[in-house]
């Protein structure tokens, strides 16, 4: 991960990538006086153009993806009863809200790009930051994309297999096609990618609105027979695993912190956006689950590989095909959103010399982050070799909440180590303490309850150590090794036709 250009100390460079919700607050440019440039090949910088409403749409658009359509089965599987499942959904929303509030202090105190990666870098140094980067880039992002793509394929195929689950190989193949199509779009034109994100965000909201509206009508008719605590699983281990599925659906509440430099008046708008968005998503998620259980029994939910399809078949009759179409569109857009947002994290890591510089480079004709998109696509397709969605959720859950817990730990640590740092937002200390205790619960307990999945998660995390030692900590590498790395970077640059976003030399 050392090339000649990385050795030139590129820490002053800034990215200008379209955000993951399709709001083109900044644009990819080639440094030749485009948006954000100085007209003379100067440094490209981020501009604060995002309003409070934009911030809310980023959070809402990042959170609502496939989780609400796949996680109800996982939550109910481990809770056993409908009422406890609904409680888990509410607590998961509150848990995410507390974490997001802690991130509000960190985001206004440490304003670097990269969110929790930057917070850990400032607090605990490069080694811990690299582990966080590794978890996000090698596990969380591609694994989440694989889950969403599998959900997409399941909902597309379910109408053709109404009496049974779609064949695993067919679902995986269609998921691969989904990823490849969106990879082509993201590599071809950023405007195409953002248009896809806008259109499919509306689809997911419309699908949820239809489900909630019909569910409220069923409540009005008095269909509440399934709302009981019968068959509740009281084991602590099962409860912890239920939170993995619940929290997976809320994943994305921290994405606004990745683009905080583009938010107007972040001291005021960041906590407001967090409060509005997390409250809205929690209400929508709980009401959607309530709607499912007004018609479907717990056994029907547990036996369904596509809960919204089963619900639509019972609620809409001949129009049942509409819901799987909307859900497929929603998950298709969610895959696109992950591809759009991932390049920013790659960029932040490469600025610190902890990722290959090729991943920050831009395609010189299309001005798209082609290497980062291709890397995400390849890793996601690798995770598609595992067809069990709930096993993938456990991988993501363990890695995500362990690393986010470390990021929240930065808050009390910095209060003690650097009390004089400017803190425009000061969170009551009870919030990070409660969050850290809850994080320990949802990471430690599943080690006993689900040792295989958490074991794989731990191995993937530990694999970061030799990578860090060889490629980052080892400074005096042999000349032949450095030449090989530079040659490989140059070869990939030529094949992909990409260039780094650097300042042009001054005119003389």
Task: Tell me the radius of gyration.
Answer: 23 Å
Look at the helices and sheets and give the structural class.
mainly alpha
Largest sheet: 2 strands, antiparallel
Strand % is under 5%
What is the CA–CA distance across the termini? 33 Å
Order of helical and strand elements: HHHHHHHHHHHHEHHHHHHE
Total strands: 2
What form results from the Cα inertia axes?
globular
Amount of helix: 55-70%
Secondary structure tally, helices: 18
- Stretches where pLDDT falls below 50 for ≥5 residues? 1-46, 503-508
The averaged pLDDT comes out at 78
Strand order in the largest sheet: 1-2
Q: What would you say this structure looks like, in words?
A:
This protein has helices at 52-63, 67-79, 82-109, 116-124, 126-157, 168-188, 190-220, 236-250, 266-295, 298-302, 307-316, 322-351, 370-383, 389-417, 430-449, 451-462, 464-473, 479-496, and strands at 362-363, 498-499. With 508 residues, it is mostly helical. The longest helix is centred in the first third of the chain and has 32 residues, at 126-157. A two-stranded antiparallel sheet has the order 1-2.
């Amino acid at each position: 991960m050392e090339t000649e250009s990385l050795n030139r100390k590129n820490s002053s460079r800034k990215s200008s990538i379209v955000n993951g919700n399709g709001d083109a607050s900044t644009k990819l440019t080639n440094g030749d006086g485009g948006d954000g440039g100085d007209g003379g090949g100067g440094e490209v910088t981020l501009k604060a153009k995002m309003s409070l409403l934009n911030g809310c749409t980023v959070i809402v658009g990042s959170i609502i993806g496939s989780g609400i359509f796949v996680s109800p089965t996982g939550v109910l599987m481990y809770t056993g009863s409908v009422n406890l499942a609904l409680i888990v959904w509410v607590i998961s929303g509150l848990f995410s809200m507390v974490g997001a509030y802690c991130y509000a202090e960190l985001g206004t105190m440490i304003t670097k790009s990269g969110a929790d990666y930057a917070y850990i870098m400032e607090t605990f140094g490069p080694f811990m930051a690299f582990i966080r980067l590794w978890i996000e880039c090698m596990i969380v992002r591609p694994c989440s994309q694989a889950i969403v793509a599998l959900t997409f394929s399941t909902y597309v195929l379910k109408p053709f297999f109404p009496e049974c689950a779609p064949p695993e190989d067919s679902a995986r193949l269609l998921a691969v096609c989904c990823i490849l199509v969106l990879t082509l779009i993201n590599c071809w034109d950023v405007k195409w990618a953002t248009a896809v994100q806008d259109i499919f965000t509306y689809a997911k909201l419309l699908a949820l609105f239809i489900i909630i509206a019909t569910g409220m009508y069923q409540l009005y008719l008095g269909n509440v027979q399934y709302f009981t605590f019968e068959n509740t699983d009281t084991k602590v281990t099962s409860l912890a695993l239920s939170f993995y599925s619940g929290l997976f659906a809320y994943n994305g509440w921290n994405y606004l912190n990745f683009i905080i430099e583009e938010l107007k008046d972040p001291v005021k708008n960041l906590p407001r956006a967090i409060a509005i968005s997390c409250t809205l998503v929690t209400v929508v998620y709980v009401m959607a689950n309530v709607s499912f259980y007004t018609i479907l029994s717990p056994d029907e939910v547990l036996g369904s590989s596509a809960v919204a399809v089963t619900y639509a078949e019972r609620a809409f009759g001949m129009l049942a095909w509409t819901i799987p179409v909307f859900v497929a569109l929603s998950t298709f857009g969610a895959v696109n959103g992950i591809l759009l947002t991932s390049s920013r994290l790659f960029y932040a890591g490469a600025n610190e010399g902890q990722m290959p510089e090729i991943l920050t480079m831009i395609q010189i004709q299309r001005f798209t982050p082609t290497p980062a998109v291709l890397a995400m696509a390849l890793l996601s397709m690798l995770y598609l070799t595992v067809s069990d969605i709930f096993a993938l959720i456990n991988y993501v859950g363990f890695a995500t909440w362990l690393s986010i817990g470390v990021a929240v730990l930065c808050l009390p640590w910095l209060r003690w180590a650097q009390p004089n740092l400017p803190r425009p937002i000061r969170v009551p200390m009870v919030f990070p303490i409660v969050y850290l205790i809850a994080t320990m619960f949802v990471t430690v307990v599943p080690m006993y309850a689900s040792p295989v999945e958490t074991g794989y998660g731990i191995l993937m995390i530990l694999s970061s150590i030799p990578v860090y030692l060889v490629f980052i900590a080892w400074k005096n590498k042999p000349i032949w090794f450095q030449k090989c790395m530079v040659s490989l970077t140059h070869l990939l640059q030529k094949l992909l036709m990409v260039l780094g976003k650097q300042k042009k030399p001054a005119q003389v």
